[in-house]
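job 3f2a | input accepted
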Amino acid sequence: MIDSNPLIIERSPVKAPDKASSEEMHYTWYHVVDKYVERTSPLVRKRNLSQDIDRITYFPGYHGRVGYDVSFHNLKDGLQTHTYAPLGLDIRNKWTLGGTLPHEPHEPKEPKEPTEIGLEVPRDGLWLREDVDMKCNFIATSFVKKTLKKAHESLVERLVEKAHIRERETHNSRLEEKNSTLS
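job 3f2a | predicted structure (183 res):
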């Protein structure tokens, strides 16, 4: 998940921060660094760093890196994260993966799992849902929401592409097994 995030340029494992709850002390914690490049930065115009332009627009006049601590906790059907960032930003995310692949075999005795009312998830196929609880300074709220939305849209695109690659690899290996048994 960290490596698929388009904003993150560095990561290193760390101990849980002092402000983490006792429950979060056993989670996996990282200190991550985002790189921000302002769209109107002379550096961008000079070198045409298009890959950095797509990352994020930052506070005018501020160039550099932003570091923060984030925890990851695996769940049966997804992942929980908790982020402590500068300016008092506190974000709790829950990513949930549900549904089934169209070609996935179903046990006749096993009914489809019911979905929670109001989730608006598709009846067939896979779905990914992100629930976010964010607390921050009201002045930064708009900026943080916009940044998070843009980064996570790109993150989801990367996850979908990785899933497509994995699906092709699985399909190709099945074909190879089938061909080797026929030979």
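job 3f2a | The mean pLDDT is 76.
job 3f2a | closed
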